[in-house]
Design a protein that fits this description.
Length: about 450
């Protein structure tokens, strides 16, 4: 029996690190996962154990290469963003992999933004809200200012996906999906690095930008496989939709954060959009993707617990609540609007509602979802402007929530609304980015499972 041709994808999250093998129909034929104990940086702040990650890549590949039933054609990577690995002339890291949650010195932040036109002006140019260490470019600035001797030892600053690619190829490169995600490094109007990168001497530390579909020969022993350059995970998860659908669409990716992504909105960010937590990504083909964010998954979890405790119920019950249109109509007619303030609010206001007003927990839960979806509609409409979107896809946790999906469909009657499900979208996206390098088959059209929602019916397709 001949070996199955596969692509190996390392999908590196903050918590879980996974390896997948996909066959040429993009079915998972092997997977394994690992979790590493964090280490600390020189300030005692928790950070990724980069040595454990490095060894895991080599060990996992060696294991796969010993499996006679598979023939690895290509390896690629998707990983979380806002994280640099600084390597010296010998290719080894010269610092820890600093955590993007590490507090950023206020004085250094003020100094930086004062030098480059102020926070608002700089954020508009780079499509990057002020996010401290989450703006990975500012991590480089911090290293230069606080540890100049270490900065001088850095040959290249590699975002995490590109570092993992470097481990197997020895080729240092940069990738637009990592650069173009709230790093503060890219000038979206001029479509190039922002001027501060040159002025601060950062540019010499950045290797050449290469296309997301580029592959290189591997140095690590194996089966003559090729290696991709790696992608930022948020951009990788969008690729299956870009490959499968040519008509304009919006993807609402739901989890702890609910992010509305519009790859068909090319308008520059406005001051109002920045104030409403809107930003831009660069997708794998280098085009801007306008995105707006809500912390709705977190709020849903907290408020569902509050409902369960008040009505003495098990919170698991709310995973499968069936949508009740009459109940929603009653709530809409009788309930006061949630208490909110500002422009697009960070929370729905359900937390300020008195649960004693509801006859039971299902009634309260419908109100929670009504409030959350109302906020979601406002957030999504920000990125909906100036584009002829015909479809709206929802993936992640809320795509399985009947109440959420029906309410969203009712809120956008002129747009087709679908719940989308796909096994390991981020890893599939990283595989699709290099499809032509390893796969002779046409990309299958059933990678994404869709369920259509309208005001009156749902249809699985």
């Amino acid at each position: 029996m001949s070996a199955i041709p596969v692509i190996a994808i390392f999908d590196v999250g903050k918590t879980n690190k996974k390896l997948f093998l996909f066959d040429d129909s993009y079915k998972i034929v092997f997977e394994k996962s690992a979790r590493f104990i964090e280490t600390v940086d020189e300030d005692g702040f928790a950070c990724e154990n980069i040595e454990s990650l490095r060894l895991s890549v080599f060990d996992s590949l060696s294991e796969v290469f010993r499996m006679k039933e598979f023939q690895v054609k290509t390896v690629n990577f998707s990983a979380y963003g806002a994280s640099f690995v600084y390597i010296g002339n010998d290719g080894k890291p010269v610092t820890p992999l600093y955590n993007y949650l590490k507090p950023y010195p206020e004085s250094l932040s003020d100094e930086f933004y004062k030098s480059y036109g102020g926070k608002e002006h700089f954020s508009m140019e780079t499509a990057s809200p002020v996010l401290g260490s989450l703006n990975s470019g500012l991590q480089l600035y911090r290293l230069k200012k606080e540890q100049p001797a270490v900065f001088n030892k850095v040959k290249y600053a590699l975002h995490l996906p590109q570092y993992m690619s470097f481990l197997l190829t020895g080729n240092a490169c940069s990738d637009l999906t990592s650069i173009g995600c709230h790093t503060g490094m890219w000038d979206f109007k001029k479509d190039r690095y922002h001027e501060w990168i040159q002025r601060e001497g950062i540019s010499v530390k950045l290797p050449p930008i290469v296309p997301a579909d580029k592959v290189s020969p591997a140095l690590f022993p194996g089966t003559g496989y090729k290696v991709g350059v790696g992608l930022h995970d948020s951009s990788a998860a969008l690729i299956p939709y870009l490959v499968n659908f040519s008509e304009p669409f919006i993807l609402i990716s739901t989890g702890t954060w609910c992010i509305s992504l519009n790859p068909f909105n090319q308008e520059p960010l406005t001051i109002e959009e920045l104030a409403n937590d809107c930003l831009c990504y660069l997708q794998y083909q280098g085009k801007p993707v306008k995105a707006s964010r809500l912390f709705s998954g977190q709020e849903h979890e907290q408020q569902a617990k509050r409902i369960a405790e008040y009505f003495n119920q098990d919170v698991i019950k709310y995973r499968n609540v069936v949508f009740d249109p009459e109940l929603v109509s009653h709530l809409k007619a009788s309930s006061q609007e949630p208490l909110t303030s500002g422009t697009i609010n960070k929370q729905s206001g359900f937390g300020k509602r008195d649960l004693a007003e509801f006859k039971d927990d299902i009634c309260a839960y419908h109100q929670l979802m009504f409030d959350l979806v109302k906020l979601q509609v406002e957030s999504t409409r920000i990125v909906l402007k100036h584009s002829r979107v015909k479809r709206l896809f929802v993936d992640g946790g809320f795509s399985k929530n009947s109440v959420y999906m029906h309410l969203l469909a009712k809120a956008f009657p002129g747009i087709e609304v679908f719940a989308a499900s796909m096994a390991q979208a981020t890893a599939v996206g990283a595989a699709l980015a290099v499809h032509k390098e390893w796969n002779r088959k046409i990309i299958p059209n059933d990678i994404i499972n869709l369920k259509y929602y309208s005001a009156n019916q749902t249809i699985a397709i």
